[in-house]
Each structure stands twice: as structure tokens, then as C-alpha cells.
Amino acid sequence: MTREWAAVVVAYDSGPLLLDCVRSLLGDDSAGTPPEVVVVDNFVSSKPADSVARIEAEFPSVSVIRPGANLGYARAANLGIAATKAAIVAVINPDAILVRGSAASVMDRFESEPTLGALGPKIREEDGAIYPSARMVPSNIDALGHALFGSIKPNNKATRRYRELDCDPEVARSVDWVSGAALWLRREALDQIGGWDEAYFMYVEDVDLCWRLKAAGWGVEYSPSAQVTHVQGVSTGRTPFRMIAAHHRSAFRFASKRWSGVKRVLLAPTALLLSLRCAVAMLSQLVRHQRASVRVP
Predict the structure, then answer these.
(1) Which helix H or strand E contains 277, and what residues bound it?
(2) How many other C-beta atoms can be found within 10 angstroms of the C-beta atom of residue 237?
(3) Cα dihedral angle (279, 281, 282, 283), rounded to 10 degrees?
């Protein structure tokens, strides 16, 4: 039985991994047919990135959209989704490789659960470690604990709860949100909530999307029977300071959307905390960069 699905890859000067990503998508016909694939190229240059040019040459079935500007992840995802027609559409990072057979598993879940709005697969890092891609929307206390200690003591209780590190990664479960590195969505649900929030440039847009889907009555699930391998930071690592700033701006935007009534008094101290955390993260990045430069012969 043929079950059509689509995949949107949001790319930014992603190098050869983009080709590997597209090959893995087209190579998974386990649902009966390969997906319709759309690449949204956010890279701005006088000529297309080599990897995108090669995709156009080698894979004529793949549509490439060049908006002529770096739209950010959410806006580019919406643009790519609008160019597809399938009822189920995946949004995937260009440095993620789909394990063959995942498509059939995903389509099975969406067919058996009519109220399922989003599904995230098991994500493995390059070294085979399982990335904690299925998480909770943290309480205010856990959000504070993770913000203060997550980078220096990643095994603290707040971070463990937020990342759901005590859950078995081999067991499917309902969750608050799943990583946007590889995320399958039901078009009907996505249309109901108005798509991805384009005010997010990078980061937290996946948290926001799943949060709004659940608020609208749709389910969000983690399913280890679908799997991708993800090489993190290939594109974002090229502009680390911009990405650090974007991450903290996005965290504040989500807080401002999530908190209502008396809780909004927390926004001012949250802005201060995030600004300080952003400054520390940038300083740490600068120190790492300088040390790496010194080691280069």
C-alpha cells in the first residue's frame, strides 16, 4: 500500500551532509513510495552552495526553493511545507540521516492515531549515543535550574527532569515536545494552529509548535521505531555568536507567550537572567575559539 508523505529540509551552507540527508530520504520507500522532498536553501550567495547545486543535478525530483534571504528555521519550514501536498510532512535538518524503514513506522502511527499531530523519532548522535530529543515543557523551577546549571552540571535534577533522562529511550511515549531536528507533522493539525511561529529565527520553535499543538488537542509522541542519525551544529556552528543570541531571544519569546496574568511579572527578571546567561555563553565561546586558535600550528 502506498502512503504518501513529504519531507522539507531547511538548509544553510550545509555541505555534503545535505546530499546524504536527501539520499536517505529518497532511499526510504518503506511506506510504499519515497517522499516528495523540498529543500529550502537559506544560504545567501551570488551562486548556490555546491551541495544544493549537486542536488539539482543529481535529484531532479527534488524541489529547491531559494528565498534570497536567511529566513530562519520556522519561516523556511512554513515555506517548504506550503510547497508540498501530502497529509503527513516531515521537517528535518540537513545534517540528519534517516534510517530506512522509519517512514513505514511513522505512517503506521499516524494512521492508527487520528489525533496524533506530531511525532519525533529516536535521534542518535554520530558516536551512536542517543540524544534526549523528547522532553517536557519545564516548570518555572526546573527552567531556572536548567538555565543556571545545565551547561556546567548536566546531570542536575532540574535538567534530568526537563530532558526526561530517566525515561527509557526504547519505549514510545506521549511527551510535551520533540526535537525539530526531525519532526513529522499532520498537515491538518499544523494548519489548525497556523504553522510554525515565524517570529523564532532559530531554537525553541519546536517547543512552541508542540506546545500549541497540545493546547489545540493534538497528541505529540516520541517513537523509537523511527530513527535518524544527527550530526549537530553543522550549519549553526558557522555563526556561533549569532546562534547563542538567537537561542536566548527565543527562550524569552516562549516565556512571554506561555506566561499570562500574574506570571508575567516574571518576564523582567527572566530577561535579565537570559541576558547574563547569553553573555557568559558568548564569553565561553570566545575563550574556546581563542584556545583552539592557539593550538593551530
Answers:
(1) helix 267-295
(2) 9
(3) 80
Task: Give the pLDDT of the chain (297 residues) as one tens digit per residue.
Answer: 558 999 999 999 888 999 999 999 999 999 999 999 999 999 887 666 688 889 999 999 999 999 999 999 999 999 999 999 999 999 999 999 999 999 999 999 999 999 999 999 999 999 999 999 999 999 999 999 999 999 889 999 999 999 999 999 999 999 999 999 999 999 999 999 999 999 999 999 999 999 999 999 999 999 999 999 998 766 566 688 899 999 999 999 999 999 999 999 999 999 999 999 999 999 988 888 777 666 545
One-letter identity of residue 277: R
Contact criterion met (CB below 8 Å) for 242 and 194: no
**What is d(CA 91, CA 35) in angstroms, rounded to the nearest whole number?**
12
Are β-strands 182-186 and 6-11 bridged in parallel, bridged antiparallel, or unpaired?
unpaired
CB 142 within 8 A of CB 162: yes
Q: Spell out where 140-218 has E strands.
A: 173-174, 177-178, 182-186
Cell numbers linked to 37? 522532498
